């Protein structure tokens, strides 16, 4: 029996290698793309925020500038530079594509003329060949011309489709950039605190605490769920009042008719998932441009842009303070929820983040983590056996 142990240990190691290979393949092929889809703005924001820390510390230590002002300055500088570069690149690409589309007939005509001239010389050279061979060459050249013409038209159609797809993706790009900028701001402001906490924990590690019982953990989860729902309702009521007051005062100041009714309608639309006050303001602005009331169109569109900016900047912080999680965690919950379930996920994401945070604080996952550590230690011991 003892003689077979090294063979059994070797078989276990081979099986473990195969399992690890399969898990690594699944991780790279399935999990990594899904994580990128769910967390990409924060994955991009984190290294940028880390790279800004030396500049922020320089402002704090050498120029005696408060950290909040330094963070805001560098985030604004990076975002402005990125916007300018992106605007230049997109403008350059769009101009080149539009020029190519406008000049496509002349380009195709020039190519066709060159090919026809080359074809004429080829036909002159093969006139002395038998008629069957000459006919085959002519048929092949005609087929080549048709293929080139079809390819040119297909290329033009793909360029037009690409421009339309790009224009259709602009609203999502705006939302994505919003999450990216806010994530960069929150990461930049918190990395210093995280580094200090990790350093303090290494210097004076906390003793292991006893986890809460199952009944206590479930009570904490129930309280967190109730707190999350009530906090979300409170935040939505704040935005309801903000939409109503901002719209009413704005349109009343500009002497629009029925300003208070407009404010009420916009506020109630803001409470409806998948609608929002943009359901009122965007069609109204478009209709104003169509009928020639450009001033009204710009005023309505300007109000909507200002309101969206205020909401996107304040919503993570308000949700974080009312739901009991940090603004960054609330922001991550909003984006992941939006990617998984659209507007419903955007609403439920912060509440789910509250429940997960409470579950971690209640040490609900400590038992599973302890079991994983025990299994890992056992596998390491068996991995070393029988190798000498």
Describe it for me?
With 388 residues, this protein is mostly helical. The protein has three domains: 1-31; 39-203, no CATH class; 219-267 and 314-388, no CATH class. The chain has eleven helices and no strands. It has helices at residues 5-61, 67-102, 104-125, 131-168, 170-203, 214-253, 259-271, 278-290, 294-323, 327-361, 366-384. Helix 8 packs antiparallel against helix 9 and helix 9 (294-323) packs parallel to helix 10 (327-361). The longest helix is centred in the N-terminal third of the chain and has 57 residues, at 5-61. It is extended. The relative contact order is 0.08. The model is unreliable at 207-212 (pLDDT under 50).
Distance between the termini: 18 Å
SSE pattern, N- to C-terminal: HHHHHHHHHHH
Overall mean pLDDT score? 78
Beta percentage is under 5%
Structural class comes to mainly alpha
Q: How much helical structure, as a percent, in the residues?
A: over 70%
What count of domains describes the coordinates?
Answer: 3
């Amino acid at each position: 029996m003892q003689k077979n142990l090294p063979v059994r240990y070797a078989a276990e190691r081979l099986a473990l290698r195969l399992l690890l290979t399969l898990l690594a393949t699944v991780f790279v092929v399935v999990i990594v793309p899904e994580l990128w889809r769910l967390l990409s703005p924060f994955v991009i924001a984190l290294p940028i925020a880390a790279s800004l820390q030396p500049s922020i510390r320089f402002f704090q230590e050498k120029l005696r500038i408060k950290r909040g002002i330094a963070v805001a300055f560098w985030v604004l500088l990076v975002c402005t530079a990125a916007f300018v570069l992106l605007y230049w690149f997109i403008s350059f690409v769009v101009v080149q594509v539009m020029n190519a589309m406008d000049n496509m007939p002349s380009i195709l005509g020039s190519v066709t003329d060159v090919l026809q001239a080359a074809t004429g010389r080829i036909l002159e050279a093969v006139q002395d060949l038998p008629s069957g061979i000459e006919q085959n060459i002519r048929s092949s050249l005609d087929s080549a011309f048709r293929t080139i013409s079809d390819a040119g038209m297909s290329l033009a159609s793909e360029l037009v489709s690409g421009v339309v797809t790009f224009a259709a993706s602009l609203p999502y790009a705006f939302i994505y950039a919003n999450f990216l900028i806010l994530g960069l701001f929150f990461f930049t402001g918190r990395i210093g605190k995280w580094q200090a906490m990790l350093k303090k924990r290494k210097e004076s590690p906390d003793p292991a605490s006893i986890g809460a019982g199952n009944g206590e953990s479930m009570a904490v989860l129930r309280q967190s769920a109730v707190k999350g729902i009530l906090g979300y309702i409170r935040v939505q009521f704040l935005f309801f009042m903000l939409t109503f007051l901002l719209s009413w005062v704005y349109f009343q100041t500009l002497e629009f008719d029925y300003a208070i009714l407009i404010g009420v309608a916009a506020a109630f639309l803001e409470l409806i998932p998948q609608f929002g006050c943009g359901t009122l303001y965007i069609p109204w602005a478009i209709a104003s441009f169509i009928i020639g009331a450009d001033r009204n169109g710009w005023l309505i569109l300007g109000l909507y842009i200002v309101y969206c900016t205020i909401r996107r900047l304040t919503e993570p912080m308000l949700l974080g303070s009312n739901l009991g999680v940090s603004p960054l965690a609330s922001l991550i919950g909003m984006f992941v929820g939006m990617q998984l379930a659209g507007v419903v996920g955007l609403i439920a994401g912060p509440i789910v983040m509250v429940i997960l945070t409470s579950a971690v604080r209640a040490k609900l996952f400590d038992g599973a983590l302890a079991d994983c550590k025990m299994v890992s230690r056992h596998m390491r011991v068996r991995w070393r056996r029988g190798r000498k």
